[in-house]
Design brief:
The complex is a heterodimer of chains A (about 110) and B (about 120). By secondary structure, chain A is mainly beta. Chain A has no helices and 11 strands. Helix content of chain B is about 0%, strand content about 60%. The chains are: A mainly beta (about 110), B mainly beta (about 120).
């Protein structure tokens, strides 16, 4: 049982480059989300999805795109990387409804130079 | 709207002494509350959760938390700290926000344990 799998674990980008962070879950959860973690800020929600074909913006969506073509996969795309996007990114998968705990991937440490 | 405030950004204790990490929440209805732990360079692990059953919730590794509605608090405690408890701890509320149903994180409390 893999849970939530995120790739890559580390990435260095140059300003202006694009890339996709991959996230897959095998728990058949409807709700998936992306967070970024910055020192002293906790985790902030970037985008989320309540099911295949449905996505919406979170607290800090600018500069990121998502899509949800299947229940299992929820990739996060950086369109044109900026140094302000240097962060640790976490994908999470959650059971919808009250009390639904989130299962997190191991994180992607992204540095934009 | 839901929000969560962790009252201490950093807590330092000695091994074998009690741990108290404080969390207050704001919610327009009965929320679900969680504590997650993150060890250095690791992902997040669920410690415990409250979902309107018993107000005293027991979690893994000897941690527990008490839901106090009158004080809107969900403080995390452990009777005796261990060196392996050194980590960052997040209090989280599940609720309806502008972003839809989402987990709303506190800013985290770093727990240091000295020998």
């Amino acid at each position: 049982n893999a849970g939530v799998t995120q790739t890559p674990k580390f990435q260095v980008l140059k300003t202006g480059q694009s890339m996709t962070l991959q996230c897959a879950q095998d728990m058949n959860h409807e709700y998936m989300s992306w967070y970024r973690q910055d020192p002293g800020m906790g985790l902030r929600l970037i985008h989320y999805s309540v099911g295949a074909g449905i996505t919406d913006q979170g607290e800090v969506p600018n500069g990121y795109n998502v899509s949800r073509s299947t229940t299992e996969d929820f990739p996060l795309r950086l369109l044109s990387a900026a140094p302000s996007q240097t962060s640790v990114y976490f994908c999470a998968s959650t059971l919808i409804g009250q009390g639904g705990e989130a299962f997190f991937g191991q994180g992607t440490r992204l540095t934009v130079v | 709207a839901q929000s969560v405030t962790q009252l201490d950004s950093h807590v330092s204790v000695s091994e074998g002494t009690p741990v108290l990490l404080r969390c207050n929440y704001s919610s327009s209805y009965s929320p679900s509350l969680f504590w997650y732990v993150q060890h250095p360079n690791k992902g997040l692990q669920l410690l415990l959760k409250y979902t309107s059953a018993a107000t005293l919730v027991k979690g893994i590794n000897g941690f527990e938390a008490e839901f106090k509605k009158s004080e809107t608090s969900f403080h995390l405690t452990k009777p005796s700290a261990h060196m392996s408890d050194a980590a960052e701890y997040f209090c989280v509320v599940s609720g309806i926000s502008q972003a839809g149903t989402a987990l709303i994180f506190g800013k985290g409390t770093t727990l240091s344990v000295s020998s």
